[in-house]
Protein 1
Amino acid sequence: MSGDHTFSMTGRERNVLFGFMGLGLLCIVLTFFGDDAVHSRFWSNYLINAVFFTGVSFVALFILAAFTTAYTGWYIVVKRIWEGYAQFLIVGIILMLVLIIGLWGHFHHLYHWADEEAVAADPVLLGKSGFLNKYWYTFGTLIILGTWYFAFARPMRKLSLREDVEGHDANYSLYRKYKWFSAVFLPIGAFTSAAMIWQWVMSVDAHWYSTMFAWYTTASWFVACMAITIMLVLYLKGRGALPFVTTEHLHDLGKYLFAFSIFWTYLWFSQYMLIWYANVGEETTYFHTRINEYPVLFYGNLVLNFVVPFFVLMRNDTKRKAGTLFFVALVVLLGRFLDFFQMVKPGVLHTTHEALAHSGEAAATEAGHHASHFTAGFTIPGLLEIGTFFGFLALFIFFVFKQLEKAPLLPKNDPYLAESLHHHVQ
Amino acid sequence: MSQHTKEVFYGLYNDEEDLLHAIEEANAQHLEIMDVYTPFPVHGLDKVMHLEESRLHIAGFVFGALGTMTAFGFMTWVFTRDWPIIFGGKPYWSVPAFIPITFELTVLFAAIGMVVSFYTVCGLGPGVSNPILDERITDDKFCIAFETDKADLDALKAFFSKTGAGEVHTKTI
């Protein structure tokens, strides 16, 4: 391949991204000032987006590790993009730090288990307090996210960049080292991410638990990562930055979007059916609330994340057409946001209700009402939620573009480069 | 058993790249290829041979949909009309409980249907004679075969020597 394939952001891209970040910030501020007494809408939106994009960057690192360990060749042409995502973990640490500070300062009421009085009077929460407590949340998050970034994402990126400059010795020692990091990360990432998902997301419904939940959320992250990747690759290709990414690579990315949408649906159904069958009150309340009070979220989630990708991407040629693939990726990305929205919002609304009832303000606030009608920001995403999401997305893309600027887009000394350049799926 | 015997003139190549180039050359010379045999699926072969996309997956979809409807319809009939029983306090028509079996039958119908369709279309099956040109095309040789009565033998010989076929043979099958 000729040329170095360096990337630099154009002024227009920078302006558009900053514009969306500004829009996001505006939405966040508007949410904060139009909120109830404990700012539940603001904090839950923040939690959704922080977890969403931290998760996408975690999954990107996991994909790199899994593909490297499995001797995968085709993805080398998009490797730099996933490396860029994985570096976003450093921003993830900062985003989660805000939630930790909010937890210690009692600025938010996202987690019922953080309310010491409620825990003392509640045998279920008391029983879980060995895991659901401020210390675990704080140190678990910092140590685990720190490990992902400082012990894996950053050194792996450095090795990859060194490989670009130095090339290989006879022993391929840089590549071997990269593979060692990958193999070590797989079990660590798999187990620790589950613990983090329990802490960050599942504990929003503090009484409830599901053994499928960590898988379910990781699958959601995975599909979101693929959707963002497909759109970004198509955009960069259209801009002329990725001439070596062909229809064949997009076909494979499309297959991952298709396959993992189905995998997510499988987990969704497994979680739903076990709870439905066993019919234990503590567990069914989760779905009972969602079906009866959040029908748009509950059914919309399945339509956007299963029906659309399944029926559109089932055919061979829809995965090879840029337009269709982009459309499905966009629908699925919005669907993934909706999925996280429905994981977090009902539990937060419930906790807020109790917190406000406790301080005697329930009747005066909108969130205090149990949702018997549609409430933007709680039972369905409102404009502010969508604006906030696009703000975070712009931040993510901006950060990734900054990473892409630091190194050529084609890892020219990767041992699997030739295989990737000649990749054919049919 | 063999109702029509035909004489086949074929060349063996050692490499799939040579094979692909040879097919392109044959297309350029307007030689009518009878068939191409390879020990493993070769990328790009369908394209150079101008083969249509297989319709097997359409059959797969139809059989799968048939499986979905069979399973779901049958369970619905059994549990609402034929033999309604209450299980675990659930309603008679318990859709979540039907999903796993519906899924299984969808896969089963699609799989069996596609195998049967494939065998039928290709004329394969028990008792069918299946002459083989050369045993090495199941191992490491790539073969292009022509029917001798449809082409000029000298043109074929020139074609094989030009495209680098290692061996050239004639065989009646």
Note: The helical segments of chain B are 16-28, 45-48, 56-82, 95-122, 153-163.
Protein 2
Amino acid sequence: MIWLIFLIVLCELFAATSQVFYKKVVDQNGSHHPLIYISDYFRFAIGILKHPLAWAGLGFMVFSTIFWLMALSAGDLSLVFPLGSIQYVLVLVGSKLFLKEKIDSMRLLGTVLIATGIVVISIS
Amino acid sequence: MRGPLVTDNKKKLTLSLFLLIMLTDFGESLSSFLLKKGVISTEIFPLSAEHIFHFTIVNIGSILIWLGVLTYFFNFFLWMRVLSKLDLSVAVPIGSTSYIMVPLAAFLFLHETVTPLRWIGIFAIILGIYFVSRSKTANDGTKVPEAS
């Protein structure tokens, strides 16, 4: 039971880490430029693939998925799915700490509502 | 003295970005579906090189697996495009639309009953998405005073 919770927390922590890495990648290589020509699309994709953090993020995502599948096969689904919504909280903390995003009360309230809604849906 | 109008559209949630997020949600479900449909399970526990090799050989020829991987890869770039335009703390919560689309589709098209508790959850998520989309970002087109 305890180790199952630990596994899910680790899974969501890895998923959130991977998201923070992805965001760092697109922030650093100017990926927001408009995509008009085919060459723009290629430049966008190659710019991402050349960034080491993109690969680190994918690696974290792979492990997160493995942990998730392990949790699903080992545990009670009515515990695993609701606990999965801690990812939203972790992403919020990661965005604040590592990406210096401004989290106002609207965003905080909205994210908490979404996480709560997911818990309610998965236990009902 | 007023500074320049910051028209950095990097941070604004537009309808097309919202639809793009829903598309990535759908792509994620599609890729899991293809992988799940395509995978032929073999014994991989206890983990050993031999077991993993056997698993790889059995599955490497599956078209469904390759379609799933391709979908995943394509979806990854779509998601990166979303992230290049929005704050992470906006994009991730709004990416929860799949939690409401599945029960809503089941209700609308398969006439499955949705329990009252589930309706409450759906409503909470919709309200949450609305709040997140209305939240302020550092650069959302407002005028900022110029640093002397």
Note: DSSP finds six helices and no strands in chain A.
Protein 3
Amino acid sequence: MQTTTSETSTLPQTVEVRNPGMALDLDWVMRATANRSAIERRAATLGGRRSIKKDYQAAWLARAISCIDLTTLAGDDTPGRVRRLCAKARQPVRADILEALGLTGLTTGAVCVYHDMIGTAVEALEGSGIPVAAVSTGFPAGLSPFHLRVAEIEESVKAGASEIDIVISRRHVLMGNWQALYDEMQAFRAACGPAHVKAILATGELGTLRNVARASLVCMMAGADFIKTSTGKESVNATLPVSLTMIRAIREFHDGTGHRVGYKPAGGISKAKDALLYLALMKDELGNRWLRPDLFRFGASSLLGDIERQLEHHVTGAYSANHRHAIG
Amino acid sequence: MSVSEIFDSMDYGPAPESAGDALAWLVDQGSRFGHFIDGAFTDPRDDFESRNPANDEVLATLTKGTAADVDAAVAAACKAQPRWEKLGGHGRAKVLYALARGIQKHSRLFAVLETLDNGKPIRESRDIDVPLVARHFYYHAGMAQLMEEELPGRAPLGVCGQVIPWNFPLLMLAWKVAPALAMGNTVVLKPAEYTSITALCFADLCAQAGVPRGVVNIVTGHGDTGALITEHDGIDKVAFTGSTEVGRIIRRATAGQGKALTLELGGKSPYIVFEDADLDSAVEGLVDAIWFNQGQVCCAGSRLLVQEGVADDFYSRLKRRMDGLRVGDPLDKCIDVGAIVDPVQLQTIRDMVDGNTEGETYVAACDMPEGCFYPPTLITGLSPAAPLMQDEIFGPVLCATTFRTPYEAVQVANNTRYGLAASVWSENINTALDIAPRLAAGVVWVNGTNMFDAAAPFGGVRESGFGREGGWEGLMAYTRDAAKPKTRAQVAPHKAGKAGGDGIDRTAKMYVGGKQARPDGGYSRRVWSKQGKMLGEVGLANRKDVRNAVEAAHKASGWAKSTGHLRAQILYYVAENLSARADEFAHRIDGLTGKRGGKAEVEASISTLFSAAAWADKFSGEARDVPIRGLALALREPTGVIGVLCEDAAPLLGLVAPMAGAIAMGSTCVLAASDPFPLAATDFYQVLDTSDVPGGVVNILTGAHGDMAGTLADHLDVDAVWSFSDPGLAKRIEEGAAGNLKRTWIDPRPVGDIPVRAYLEAATDVKTVWVPYGA
């Protein structure tokens, strides 16, 4: 699969040719299985198999930052709050630390907000190359009228969001209505136009890993650019077993179609150590190509703080404190 | 590389575990070790070196155990045993608990020493070996505590001689030492010459944990030191884990010595992947199956059987996964595959793989370090006859073939001399649970591999050995009946009198495959009463009669699949029909023996048949509490074809008791009737004929036990030989048993003293089926 430098995006990084999707292949979908106990064993032993230390750890943590969708999705968001977050996205780590690491200019992967905050964010990030992502389609439950959900996407794209995080209708998965899921996803993708679409599966509400595997395939067939675990609002969000299931689906889709789809675990990832584990999982299961922000994102709000402390520790040798780092 | 360069390359860097503390411990010990005998280290001699296979550095020099060393160790163990036994269950439990805690407190020291000495990745010694060691001591602390209450009438065997391999040095020590100590035995243990250091560190721990002197003795050395231990007169029980070749040598060397023996030997375990399996998980499972401990695992899933329709897909996923394996410094925390234990083993692997001319060989495209390492290798397209499909490689080499149907999967899987473990991957519970019981293996993992726990019995069938480690079954190998056994009297045939009988000539035939059979050799022998009256004539079985009977017993193997309920009904029916002819049999017995015990013997036979019938649907397996979400089922499976040399003095009970015990659980049998008094047995087949016993389930031969014992013991398709006959035959039987490592049971007691349960234990092997689950 050849990669090209995107001409429409302002992203500085190389991006993938977009997944055009394919016809729904139900045979393929129904073949997908996921053995929970085996997947859990693999996930549980990963941490013991992969250890990243010293300079490597610092570099990997910086890589994690470059893949963070720095997020605020709260009812009390205000323009001020969003501008502060955007400033943090531009300068995620204290300048002196980045300088010591030789990584001046490091930014997060994107900023992720609700529709009403898109304008503020776009303005605040102007010239930074950092894209604005918006959650959409009646986030988080996705149960508003279908035409409004489509319209919401269109509005958000118009407002300047270059990435749209949609939520799927969980009931389509729970009822095995794969055609409906496919149609819905296809409509959302069409509504996104040039904006990249991330399909949030809300895996914590899908019941089984097999459902996660099948829903992943259907969304990719319908043209998702990314598949994403969670809204962050379910009681269970991103986990390693769910991630393993989804990224194996991504691998299988790539094997079958030649198209690379991105992965975004979201919710519950708050420790630097967890971030390393996710990166190792991506590297081992999918390869280095999936360690770039065009194919991998963390949906996280508090992860960055822990990484900042670890990086300062790496530079100074002394354990750090929260108040030594700017809040976002 | 700078941070910003790594930011782009996203390589894994080095993540070494420090060897500092472990190396310092070695230096503290002088880097030289003697044996640990009677609670103290002996003066070290520089006889051989223990090396780190990853960098060839010498870790320590060790002492080779001489005959005098072994004598001293056995003497110390003998002296310590009575007091250790008398300490009681609770007293021993406290010591085992202290050992478990000690292992945990020094877990990193043990893990690093193990990795230094063996070459296995630190992840494995840290996350798998050492935690399992601690678990084993905890579990058996509990067994010591419960012994008096739960195992009434059981006593320790005495001094156990234990010889363990180099692939899991400390874990195999734990598997051997913990149950032995829990039951009140003392031990003399020899670690493998490549990997003695953690055993010596354990010896150090024993001294700290309050293990009384002499209870644990460690003697280092090579195979000849091991032989000095296993063949030593003062040893009551031999436990060995290692190669089938050495297991056979031990079986022969200890034949007739009256030692209890358990052998955990090699394997060529099948790893079966059905088309409906979670293929990615099955691929990942192979990493734990054949690239765990560099494939130097007796139960490694080394024979991959993939359903043909998904084979190409599966192989390509597997090759990609292989390319991602990281081979290198075992102390690196980011390594999947470490060093091969010794250059000698590396050469063995090379020779075997290089000698293969079949199929396609794929070598993982991973970075290979210099030194004693071997790359993960997959060989596809091998025929079942290929040596690599049959012989244990004991290295990171996976051999693969395909199958079409579940039936064929079982057929290919069981086409091996071994029978240690098997894995079955299918998302279909019907497929998985149908296949698991049909595999010739002591352990079956459904959708998993290499799961171990102290509560789950582990051990093999066929040439993978016998005996179980772990669970209640494991304790049977370290205890005996507490009662001092009464030894049965030997009887001789009565003297010949005057020939000629009343009425029509009646020659008792043998009973093979549900039909009466004339002896192949065409020779018969007269049977006389005490008074010299001729009672009849019986055929003399020769080799071919034994062969025919074994063949018939195999043909009746469908009996194993019958329900316990059905087997119970048939046994009751045999009892009913015997009861109807009780007087006739009593008369016959009295006539043969010249005594008056016939009536009682018939009654005892009927009662034994009832007991066996009663057990037939109750001597079942059970679920074990293992620390996974899932089931570990310890199932009782019939041993197979059992040859029995029946007790001479009890013409009927001597035949009926082992027969009932054998067939109650689904085995079939070849019974060599009482040598001097065979006519009750030949009358008895009429009872069998009228009781719906399927032909071939029970086969009865008459003739000289001395002639039949060797043929049965040598027969490679007989699974067990029991002897309640001349004790002088024990050596011949146990030597012959080495051929296919069949189970042997030589019991000195009169059969009337042997509880029915003992037959059932001997007529079954425990198969542990692990079924992890999760929606």
Note: The first helix of chain A runs from residue 26 to 31.
Protein 4
Amino acid sequence: MKKIIIIASAVLIGLVSQAQAKKPTLMILPSDNWCEQRYFMTEFDNQGTKQKVPNYKQSFQEDGELAQVISKIGSLMIDRGFPLKDAEQELKNIESRTAEDNMTSSVATGSGLSESPLDKLKNKAKADIILQIWWKVTKTDSGKVVSFILEALDAYTSKRVASSTGNSAPNSKDIVPVMLQQAVVSNIDPFVSQLQTHFDDMTTNGREIRLSVRKWNNWDKNLETEVNGDEIRNQIYDWLQKNTVKGRFSEMNTSENRVDYEQVRIPLFDERNRAMDARQFAIGLQKYLKAAPFNIEAKLMTRGLGEAILVLGEK
Amino acid sequence: MFRTAICLVSICMFLFGCSTPKSFQIECQSVSVDAAYILDVTTESKKELKDLNTIKLEAIDGVLFRGISGPNCVTQKPILTQSKSELKSNKFINSILGKKKGYDKYVTSISKLNTSATVDFKKTTIIYKYRVSINKELLRKDLTEAGILKSLNTGF
């Protein structure tokens, strides 16, 4: 009898843990415009092209209001069961591993894939949703006015999934940090309800990613080469049909050298209940192409969490 | 006999009409840093309200079903998306809005602000204004626990 109870409890615990999916993780950052206004920008060399990108580390270290706003949003999100990832801490981790992050090139040809500092942060922190905040304090004749924007961006697709914006009434008695906190609490509810809609969509239709299949120039085949009587490109299409949620994806820019897939809806978790991102999903396709009858080696590269690029021909 | 009855009913209706406020207006004054709503509830009446529970109930009803706005506030949508009639048989909603006075838990303070009178051809109407503070976060939390509001955690 005792054994039966123990076995039944174990099965029940197993079922409960299987039924519960892992929560999406959220991380908060100041918006690009906010960083630009406060001169928290740095130059990033994107394969020869100079690009201005936010210097988050500097903003966390030097701006006093930012910490207060993040802390307020953080506490409200904790109340809703969603603690935020500490972006400042993640940035420190990235800094200590900069050398590692540069190893995204083909072993054979040395071809590389450039990642922006934000892509690196997304990759390292593995946050599903990036919350971006922006505010501006304007002085008017009747007092200070705080304009506030809170946005949530899907880290996988960079799509805006929730947004709340508002202006406070002119206020001459409260200090700016108090006005900012009021702006946060006034805007959080509509924001959270939009976030809820996105989560509902994600649990029903899967996570959205982008996938690109290309070929190395020195490969003697292309995507129109036939294997077992059908083009490689068509067989990749069939694999995606089988492995995406409800077979949902869109094929774009198709040629013999390259196929891009957008709005690829991947399951939130693999068969072992591990969170799945673009890389994990593309590994499945990489293995499929490596096996017979294809026997194709492929280099897998990623950009952020939501984009995977598979280059056929060699690693 | 019939005439007397009609007279009595008319007198009762008149008296009832005089003591019961006709309408309430809710205006958001501010949202505090701890997410409490500071509301001004205005009502017209010939007599001052002895029981402030009506004011509290109106304020909670406004926050739940009608939403609140005001010149000093970012407009706040109603907490609930369902209508009052949809939730009329809900136990928790009935406990908040019903005779059990559950709304009391969420009203952190209430005070009379001022009165002003308007005289309009034989009739004097007094406008009473009350300031009510509502603990919105606690209300939202309890509604989520009661399963009326969906938690962000749902499905995870």
Note: The first strand of chain A starts at residue 26 and ends at 30.
